[in-house]
């Protein structure tokens, strides 16, 4: 009998009845290793084989249907290559034609006149007559007097892989479901926090095999009550992780108390070639109040693109460094890390701050020297990528952790970096995002943090003028680029894909690069995409920043942080395919200086696609990131705002912030209740859904418990 999650997580799929090495290997490719993984591999759609339709009731919109038919006539092979087999079937209400593709000659012999079959397939209009027809149905041959039985539940269709057909996958998952029905998973969620009135095991079975709707309309797995019940439990567990992190941040372990050095701050401000905004100074003062305490700061700074979050971070780091602490700034990309390093080195040069760049692309000999400087404390401000929290990076006295573009990192990565503080102490943490975060998402993503907002842009910035242009006018855009770039203007041309995909209307960065290079041979055109190595990407960006490249064809890799003030034109190919937040981020790469900048959204938006049309119009009429974030939440849910690759949510098995944001506040309240009243339950839930968090927590020196009060 299963008495704990640990048991089901320790049952390897290879130990299940009927699972041999080949099936096990295929399951592993789907990241299914244990019985626990298997039962949470949910279907993405269903087939309804629970009732038999009549031919007379079919329309071209009937979708997929199950029919009990008799063979009326074999019409033979048709088409230019003679590979489409046409067969007429009938029931007692009418006749229907079926098309079979890529069949073989002997297949025809099975269809003798009058033979009964059970056919499941999709209904499409016949291209000649417009009448409903069956397209390549699955056929089960029946005996003359055989009784036809239908399924009790909907038939699940799963994401699969080569060598793992649906029948095998269904059978394997059914074996796993039978096990947990005989020995259900432990019920961790208290009844008073379970508004769905069903156990986790029953909910799991309900997602794999739901009953059909009474009117047999299609069911989406994610809209089932049983699916929501599972998401709700996982969201509670995630909120408990955030609460635990907040407890850890404000634990008894002291952080460096930084006394505000007003002269240092004044000297730094006077060294700047510009004056910070009042919003920047307000947020800086909020950070100073936190740093002055020996309780570790945990603060999020969010603001629009170009609002000056990095400057606030550098001002804060200078105070910490002069108080004797080390600072680290974590960036999501090598390009952005190098830009931050250049900016920090320049602004802090006259204050004798030793800045150091650490990325994964450093040579081994150079890396050893860098690690020595970090460990002996001579490196005061360390800027880098994921390399900054690897095991071999030892800090002498890390006091402030700054994380840029926080939505690119997960909880475990934040913890890994915070764990670098000296034993017995905690580091202050300051996380930044250029995406304005509505209240709902603050709860979902950052409820362990205090929130500061920079809602003002530096003076002298002209709002970017945005225009919508049909893709058919691309040649006009290239001609205009020729005129302005020949005078020294620089431009980005961004494409959603690196290479041509299955959609021919999506121009790739490579093809745009080749097209512009051919049409504007006298201009230097650059190419930038994620498949290039770090050295290649850095060389391209350095050349672009230095003005050696006039037009940079790129993927959305330049979405975050790239800052070239002389680039005043942003062209986005197939803009209708990108979300509002991503479009706004890309537009934020221009308008960084005092010159008027422009964003051209090239699109093929279908006039009937209301969401795409509204999104483009919002971009055309507004430069306000906070307004755009609010519109985004209303249009598409939070997924557009935080991005599809939000690292903190990559570890979700079932829940999705985009889809389930309405559950978050309730889940947060339940998590707060559990934290205060059910310590054991809280940790069991976290261990079920996010064991990697507890592992990271337990690895932390002098680990904290959920029971500690915040």
Structural features:
20 strands, NA-bd_OB-fold, alpha/beta, OB fold (Dihydrolipoamide Acetyltransferase, E2P), DNA-binding, isomerase, 17% strand, 25 helices, 710 residues, Rossmann fold
Mean pLDDT: 86
Radius of gyration, taken over Cα atoms and rounded to an integer in Å: 30 Å
- The tally of strands reads 20
**Helix percentage range:** 25-40%
CATH architecture identity of the largest domain: 3-Layer(aba) Sandwich
Distance between the termini: 38 Å
The neighbouring-strand order within the major sheet is 10-11-9-12-13-8-14
The CATH homologous superfamily of the largest domain is termed P-loop containing nucleotide triphosphate hydrolases
Number of helices: 25
Parts with pLDDT < 50 across at least 5 consecutive residues: 500-506, 637-650, 701-710
Shape: globular
* Biggest sheet overview: 7 strands, parallel
Using the coordinates shown, work out and report the CATH topology of the largest domain.
Rossmann fold
Tell me the count of domains: 4
Strand content: 15-25%
Structural class: alpha/beta
CATH class of the largest domain: Alpha Beta
InterPro entries: ATP-dep_DNA_helicase_RecG (IPR004609), DEAD/DEAH_box_helicase_dom (IPR011545), Helicase_ATP-bd (IPR014001), Helicase_C-like (IPR001650), NA-bd_OB-fold (IPR012340), P-loop_NTPase (IPR027417), RecG/Mfd (IPR047112), RecG_dom3_C (IPR045562)
Protein name: ATP-dependent DNA helicase RecG
Catalytic activity: Couples ATP hydrolysis with the unwinding of duplex DNA by translocating in the 3'-5' direction; ATP + H2O = ADP + phosphate + H(+)
Organism: Succinatimonas hippei (strain DSM 22608 / JCM 16073 / KCTC 15190 / YIT 12066)
């Amino acid at each position: 009998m299963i008495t704990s999650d640990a048991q089901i997580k320790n049952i390897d799929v290879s130990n299940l009845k009927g699972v041999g090495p080949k099936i096990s290997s295929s399951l592993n490719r789907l990241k299914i290793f244990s019985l626990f993984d298997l039962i949470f591999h949910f279907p993405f759609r269903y087939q309804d084989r629970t009732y038999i339709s009549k031919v007379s009731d079919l329309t071209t919109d009937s979708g997929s249907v199950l029919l009990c038919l008799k063979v009326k006539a074999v019409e033979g092979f048709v088409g230019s290559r003679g590979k489409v087999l046409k067969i007429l079937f009938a029931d007692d209400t009418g006749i229907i034609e079926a098309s079979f593709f890529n069949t073989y000659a002997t297949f025809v012999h099975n269809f003798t006149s009058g033979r009964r079959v059970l056919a499941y397939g999709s209904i499409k209009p016949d291209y000649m007559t417009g009448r409903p027809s069956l397209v390549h149905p699955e056929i089960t041959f029946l005996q003359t007097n055989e009784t036809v039985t239908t399924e009790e539940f909907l038939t699940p269709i799963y994401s699969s892989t080569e060598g793992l057909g649906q029948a095998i996958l269904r059978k394997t998952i059914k074996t796993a479901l039978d096990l947990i029905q005989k020995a259900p998973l432990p019920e961790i969620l208290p009844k008073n926090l379970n508004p769905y009135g069903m156990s986790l095991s029953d909910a799991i079975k309900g997602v794999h095999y739901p009953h059909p709707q009474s009117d047999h309309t299609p069911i989406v797995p994610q809209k089932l009550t049983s699916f929501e019940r599972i998401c709700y439990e996982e969201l509670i567990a995630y909120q408990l992780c955030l609460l635990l992190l907040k407890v850890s941040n404000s634990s008894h372990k002291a952080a460096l108390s930084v006394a505000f050095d007003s002269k240092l701050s004044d000297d730094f401000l006077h060294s700047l070639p510009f004056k910070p905004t009042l919003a920047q100074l307000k947020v800086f003062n909020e950070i100073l109040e936190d740093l002055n305490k020996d309780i570790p700061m945990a603060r999020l700074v969010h603001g629009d693109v170009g609002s000056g979050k990095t400057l606030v971070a550098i001002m804060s780091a200078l105070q910490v460094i002069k108080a004797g602490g080390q600072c680290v700034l974590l960036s999501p990309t090598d390009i952005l890390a190098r830009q931050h390093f250049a900016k920090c080195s320049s602004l802090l040069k006259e204050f004798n701050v030793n800045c150091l760049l650490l990325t994964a692309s450093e040579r081994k000999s150079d890396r050893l020297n860098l690690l020595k400087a970090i460990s002996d404390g001579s490196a005061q401000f360390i800027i880098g990528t994921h390399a900054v929290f690897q095991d071999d990076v030892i800090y002498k006295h890390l006091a402030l952790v700054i994380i840029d573009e926080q939505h690119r990192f997960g909880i475990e990565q934040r913890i890994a970096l915070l764990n670098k503080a000296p034993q017995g102490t905690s580091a202050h943490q300051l996380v930044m995002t250029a995406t304005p975060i509505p209240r709902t998402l603050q709860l979902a993503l950052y409820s362990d943090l205090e929130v500061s907002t920079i809602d003002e842009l530096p003076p002298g910035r002209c709002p970017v003028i945005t225009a919508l242009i049909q893709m058919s006018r691309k040649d006009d855009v290239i001609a205009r680029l020729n005129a302005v770039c020949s005078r020294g203007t620089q431009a980005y041309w961004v494409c959603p894909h690196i290479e041509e995909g299955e959609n021919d209307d999506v121009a790739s960065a490579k093809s745009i690069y080749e097209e512009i290079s051919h049409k504007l041979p006298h201009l230097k055109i650059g190419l930038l995409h994620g498949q290039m190595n770090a050295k290649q990407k850095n060389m391209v960006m350095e050349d672009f920043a230095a003005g050696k490249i006039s037009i940079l064809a790129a993927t959305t890799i330049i979405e975050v942080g790239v800052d070239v003030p002389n680039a005043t034109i942003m062209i986005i190919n197939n803009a209708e395919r990108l979300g509002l937040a991503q479009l706004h981020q890309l537009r934020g790469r221009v308008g960084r200086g005092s010159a008027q900048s422009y964003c051209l959204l090239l699109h093929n938006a279908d006039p009937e696609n209301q969401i795409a049309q509204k999104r483009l119009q919002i971009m055309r009429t507004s430069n306000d990131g906070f307004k755009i974030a609010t519109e985004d939440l209303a249009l598409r849910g939070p997924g557009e705002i935080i991005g599809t690759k939000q690292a903190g949510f990559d570890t979700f098995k079932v829940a999705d912030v985009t889809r389930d944001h309405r559950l978050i506040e309730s889940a947060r309240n339940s998590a707060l209740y559990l934290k205060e009243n059910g310590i054991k339950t809280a940790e069991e839930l976290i261990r079920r859904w996010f064991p990697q968090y507890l592992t990271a927590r337990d690895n932390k020196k002098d680990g904290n418990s959920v029971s500690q009060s915040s």
